[in-house]
Amino acid sequence: xxxxxxxxxxxxxxxxxxxxxxxxxxxxxxxxxxxxxxxxxxxxxxxxxxxxxxxxxxxxxxxxxxxxxxxxxxxxxxxxxxxxxxxxxxxxxxxxxxxxxxxxxxxxxxxxxxxxxxxxxxxxxxxxxxxxxxxxxxxxxxxxxxxxxxxxxxxxxxxxxxxxxxxxxxxxxxxxxxxxxxxxxxxxxxxxxxxxxxxxxxxxxxxxxxxxxxxxxx
Length: 218
Description:
Blueprint: H1 17-27, H2 34-46, H3 49-65, E1 67-68, E2 75-76, H4 82-85, E3 90-97, H5 100-107, E4 114-118, H6 136-144, E5 157-160, H7 166-180, E6 185-188, H8 204-212, E7 215-216
Helix pairs in contact: 1-2
Protein backbone atom coordinates (compact mmCIF):
# COMPACT_ATOMS: atom_id res chain seq x y z
CA UNK A 1 0.00 0.00 0.00
CA UNK A 2 1.51 3.31 -1.03
CA UNK A 3 2.25 5.72 1.77
CA UNK A 4 0.17 8.87 1.52
CA UNK A 5 2.30 12.00 1.51
CA UNK A 6 1.32 14.86 3.76
CA UNK A 7 0.33 18.05 2.03
CA UNK A 8 1.19 21.39 3.62
CA UNK A 9 -0.19 24.09 1.36
CA UNK A 10 1.55 27.45 1.16
CA UNK A 11 -1.24 29.82 2.13
CA UNK A 12 0.70 32.78 0.72
CA UNK A 13 0.18 31.37 -2.77
CA UNK A 14 -3.45 32.48 -2.45
CA UNK A 15 -2.32 36.12 -2.48
CA UNK A 16 -1.67 38.14 -5.65
CA UNK A 17 1.97 38.46 -6.67
CA UNK A 18 2.41 42.03 -5.30
CA UNK A 19 1.17 40.90 -1.87
CA UNK A 20 3.48 37.89 -1.87
CA UNK A 21 6.39 40.19 -2.68
CA UNK A 22 5.40 42.50 0.19
CA UNK A 23 5.19 39.51 2.54
CA UNK A 24 8.68 38.40 1.58
CA UNK A 25 10.15 41.86 2.13
CA UNK A 26 8.42 42.36 5.50
CA UNK A 27 9.52 38.92 6.70
CA UNK A 28 13.15 39.93 6.11
CA UNK A 29 12.92 42.65 8.77
CA UNK A 30 14.48 41.87 12.20
CA UNK A 31 11.98 40.37 14.62
CA UNK A 32 9.28 39.96 11.97
CA UNK A 33 8.19 36.39 11.34
CA UNK A 34 5.90 35.12 8.62
CA UNK A 35 2.71 35.61 10.64
CA UNK A 36 3.68 39.14 11.70
CA UNK A 37 4.53 39.98 8.10
CA UNK A 38 1.11 38.74 7.03
CA UNK A 39 -0.66 40.89 9.64
CA UNK A 40 1.31 43.96 8.56
CA UNK A 41 0.62 43.31 4.88
CA UNK A 42 -3.12 42.89 5.51
CA UNK A 43 -3.14 46.08 7.59
CA UNK A 44 -1.56 47.97 4.69
CA UNK A 45 -4.07 46.51 2.27
CA UNK A 46 -6.96 47.72 4.44
CA UNK A 47 -5.42 51.15 5.06
CA UNK A 48 -6.27 54.24 3.05
CA UNK A 49 -4.05 54.68 0.02
CA UNK A 50 -2.78 57.97 1.45
CA UNK A 51 -1.65 56.31 4.69
CA UNK A 52 0.14 53.50 2.85
CA UNK A 53 1.86 55.94 0.51
CA UNK A 54 2.94 58.09 3.48
CA UNK A 55 4.70 55.04 4.90
CA UNK A 56 6.34 54.32 1.54
CA UNK A 57 7.43 57.96 1.27
CA UNK A 58 8.91 57.92 4.79
CA UNK A 59 10.93 54.80 3.96
CA UNK A 60 12.17 56.37 0.72
CA UNK A 61 13.18 59.59 2.50
CA UNK A 62 15.11 57.68 5.16
CA UNK A 63 17.17 55.96 2.46
CA UNK A 64 17.74 59.07 0.35
CA UNK A 65 18.05 61.86 2.93
CA UNK A 66 19.59 60.27 6.03
CA UNK A 67 23.30 59.51 6.17
CA UNK A 68 26.11 59.35 8.71
CA UNK A 69 27.63 62.34 10.46
CA UNK A 70 31.19 62.81 9.13
CA UNK A 71 32.38 63.61 12.66
CA UNK A 72 30.75 61.02 14.93
CA UNK A 73 28.92 58.66 12.52
CA UNK A 74 25.54 59.21 14.12
CA UNK A 75 22.52 59.45 11.83
CA UNK A 76 21.98 62.86 10.27
CA UNK A 77 19.99 64.54 7.53
CA UNK A 78 22.48 67.39 7.23
CA UNK A 79 26.20 68.09 7.06
CA UNK A 80 26.62 67.06 10.70
CA UNK A 81 24.33 65.54 13.32
CA UNK A 82 22.33 67.62 15.80
CA UNK A 83 24.65 66.69 18.70
CA UNK A 84 27.83 67.75 16.90
CA UNK A 85 26.18 71.02 15.77
CA UNK A 86 24.94 71.91 19.25
CA UNK A 87 27.20 74.69 20.58
CA UNK A 88 25.92 74.04 24.11
CA UNK A 89 27.67 70.65 24.20
CA UNK A 90 31.20 70.09 25.48
CA UNK A 91 33.15 68.68 22.49
CA UNK A 92 36.21 67.95 24.65
CA UNK A 93 34.37 64.89 26.05
CA UNK A 94 33.69 62.07 23.57
CA UNK A 95 31.51 59.14 24.63
CA UNK A 96 32.16 56.08 22.44
CA UNK A 97 29.22 53.75 21.73
CA UNK A 98 28.66 50.81 19.42
CA UNK A 99 25.53 51.86 17.53
CA UNK A 100 23.33 54.96 17.04
CA UNK A 101 20.59 53.31 19.14
CA UNK A 102 22.98 53.34 22.12
CA UNK A 103 23.52 57.08 21.60
CA UNK A 104 19.76 57.62 21.57
CA UNK A 105 19.33 55.65 24.82
CA UNK A 106 22.00 57.74 26.56
CA UNK A 107 20.55 61.01 25.22
CA UNK A 108 17.18 60.16 26.76
CA UNK A 109 18.72 60.38 30.23
CA UNK A 110 19.48 64.09 29.71
CA UNK A 111 22.59 63.63 31.89
CA UNK A 112 25.37 63.82 29.32
CA UNK A 113 26.44 67.10 27.71
CA UNK A 114 29.48 66.01 25.72
CA UNK A 115 29.58 64.58 22.21
CA UNK A 116 29.73 61.02 20.88
CA UNK A 117 31.53 58.67 18.54
CA UNK A 118 29.68 55.70 17.04
CA UNK A 119 31.86 52.71 16.18
CA UNK A 120 29.16 51.00 14.09
CA UNK A 121 29.93 47.67 15.75
CA UNK A 122 32.52 46.04 18.00
CA UNK A 123 35.64 43.97 17.44
CA UNK A 124 34.59 40.34 17.06
CA UNK A 125 37.16 37.94 15.60
CA UNK A 126 34.64 35.09 15.49
CA UNK A 127 32.42 37.18 13.24
CA UNK A 128 35.33 38.44 11.17
CA UNK A 129 35.07 42.01 12.49
CA UNK A 130 38.40 43.72 13.15
CA UNK A 131 39.31 47.25 14.24
CA UNK A 132 39.68 48.20 10.57
CA UNK A 133 35.99 47.44 9.99
CA UNK A 134 34.91 50.01 12.58
CA UNK A 135 35.30 53.79 12.84
CA UNK A 136 38.19 53.54 15.29
CA UNK A 137 40.54 55.26 12.85
CA UNK A 138 38.19 58.24 12.65
CA UNK A 139 38.02 58.43 16.46
CA UNK A 140 41.81 58.52 16.76
CA UNK A 141 41.91 61.14 14.01
CA UNK A 142 39.57 63.33 16.08
CA UNK A 143 42.06 63.09 18.94
CA UNK A 144 45.15 63.68 16.79
CA UNK A 145 43.60 66.48 14.75
CA UNK A 146 41.24 68.76 16.73
CA UNK A 147 39.93 70.28 13.51
CA UNK A 148 38.23 66.96 12.81
CA UNK A 149 36.37 67.02 16.13
CA UNK A 150 33.09 68.81 16.75
CA UNK A 151 33.68 72.55 16.98
CA UNK A 152 37.36 72.04 16.23
CA UNK A 153 37.93 71.36 19.95
CA UNK A 154 40.75 69.30 21.43
CA UNK A 155 39.57 65.98 22.93
CA UNK A 156 40.43 65.81 26.64
CA UNK A 157 38.44 62.75 27.73
CA UNK A 158 37.22 59.63 25.95
CA UNK A 159 34.42 57.79 27.77
CA UNK A 160 34.01 54.14 26.84
CA UNK A 161 30.30 53.37 26.65
CA UNK A 162 30.40 50.01 24.93
CA UNK A 163 27.97 47.25 25.85
CA UNK A 164 29.23 45.12 28.78
CA UNK A 165 29.68 41.95 26.74
CA UNK A 166 32.79 39.90 25.96
CA UNK A 167 33.22 41.61 22.57
CA UNK A 168 32.38 45.02 24.02
CA UNK A 169 34.96 44.65 26.77
CA UNK A 170 37.58 43.49 24.25
CA UNK A 171 36.89 46.51 22.07
CA UNK A 172 37.04 48.81 25.09
CA UNK A 173 40.46 47.40 26.04
CA UNK A 174 41.76 48.01 22.52
CA UNK A 175 40.47 51.61 22.59
CA UNK A 176 41.83 52.21 26.09
CA UNK A 177 45.33 51.32 24.95
CA UNK A 178 45.13 53.29 21.70
CA UNK A 179 43.74 56.44 23.34
CA UNK A 180 46.02 56.33 26.39
CA UNK A 181 49.06 56.43 24.10
CA UNK A 182 47.87 59.86 22.98
CA UNK A 183 47.87 61.28 26.50
CA UNK A 184 44.08 61.62 26.67
CA UNK A 185 42.09 60.70 29.78
CA UNK A 186 40.11 57.46 29.40
CA UNK A 187 37.10 56.55 31.52
CA UNK A 188 34.25 54.09 31.21
CA UNK A 189 30.63 54.04 32.23
CA UNK A 190 30.07 52.73 35.74
CA UNK A 191 29.23 49.04 36.02
CA UNK A 192 25.71 49.72 37.16
CA UNK A 193 24.99 48.13 33.80
CA UNK A 194 24.51 44.36 34.19
CA UNK A 195 27.16 42.29 32.43
CA UNK A 196 25.84 40.80 29.21
CA UNK A 197 23.07 43.38 28.81
CA UNK A 198 22.57 46.00 26.10
CA UNK A 199 22.50 49.77 26.58
CA UNK A 200 19.28 50.13 24.60
CA UNK A 201 17.43 47.94 27.13
CA UNK A 202 18.67 49.72 30.26
CA UNK A 203 16.30 52.18 31.92
CA UNK A 204 17.05 55.89 32.18
CA UNK A 205 17.99 55.78 35.86
CA UNK A 206 20.60 53.04 35.33
CA UNK A 207 22.10 54.91 32.37
CA UNK A 208 22.18 58.19 34.28
CA UNK A 209 24.04 56.51 37.17
CA UNK A 210 26.45 54.94 34.68
CA UNK A 211 27.27 58.34 33.18
CA UNK A 212 27.69 60.13 36.53
CA UNK A 213 29.68 57.24 38.03
CA UNK A 214 32.07 56.74 35.13
CA UNK A 215 35.50 55.58 36.24
CA UNK A 216 39.00 56.33 35.08
CA UNK A 217 40.76 53.38 33.47
CA UNK A 218 44.32 54.65 33.70
